[in-house]
């Protein structure tokens, strides 16, 4: 097996970093959202994330038009903000309404901007890339989110898989709303020799939140349907029907190793199990992510998105306490970080 490495190159014409360690390899696009667009278990011939070139037939045009349903894009803020506006800590924010049909702001500001590479290195055991985005006056994003802040994405590969840490530092003198999420697009099946019917998905889902016809939470919860019940219960069909649904994350009870019987090790977890091969794709996230959005587009596209978010969709506009929405402030000079991982067992 090759030694861990980080190599500069191109991916569909975009500058890229190829990261390799153990049986894993990843592709990161610093100039386009700091986006980790590919993660593979090369020894097993497995593709763990939906890749733009694979999905687009060797062309990036679809990806460039809509980068979010691929790989592991950071969303800030995640999902939707109704009418693109809210007030938080005395500051009113007005974001562009980029989902005009529903009159929402969708997916935030950082999924297609250039990030700086501040570290790329390999050791005997791992390979690591650290990207940084510094938001300051004069940046177009500052015009709608007027906060001096620093974002970092730290991607590390080892024999154990991908470890990804996101860090947020408030460099300003006012509290900023912490609105972090990922639009994680897992391949199902992740083994090209398997079929979707070979796979089940389990996620530690809590209560389901009712969504309006604008796909915004009404503030009320609702019973989970049969598909969500099976996924929450330890293994359901990820393509039983199209899903675009919001859930609180239910903490595990510490007794087991999966969502159906407690998470044991602490994080949230999405588990994709291939019954044909016995392999499991494990996506684990810090419990700082208080909610899951589940989305599978049309239930026929071959990918399943368990999207971890630090708070509910449209949280600043909900008439609910922070203990319910997960919304929190990051004070002046404060930092926040959360870790996620993807591996195959």
What top-tier CATH class fits best? Mainly Beta
Alpha-carbon distance between the two ends: 18 Å
Low-pLDDT segments, ≥5 res = 253-265
Q: How much helix, percentage-wise, in residues?
A: under 10%
By CATH, the architecture is named Distorted Sandwich
Number of domain modules: 1
* CATH topology term: Beta-galactosidase, Chain A, domain 5
In terms of structural class, how would the helical and strand content be classed? mainly beta
Average pLDDT works out at: 94
Please explain how this structure is put together:
With 345 residues, the protein is mainly beta. The chain has a single domain, classed as Distorted Sandwich (Beta-galactosidase, Chain A, domain 5), CATH 2.70.98.10. It is built from four helices and 27 strands. It has helices spanning 52-55, 61-65, 226-232, 322-325; strands at residues 5-11, 14-21, 24-29, 35-41, 46-47, 74-75, 80-82, 85-88, 91-94, 104-106, 116-122, 126-135, 149-158, 161-170, 176-178, 181-182, 186-187, 199-203, 205-211, 217-222, 244-249, 268-274, 280-285, 291-295, 303-309, 328-330, 335-344. It is globular and about 55 Å long. The two termini are 18 Å apart. Mean pLDDT is 94; it is low at 253-265.
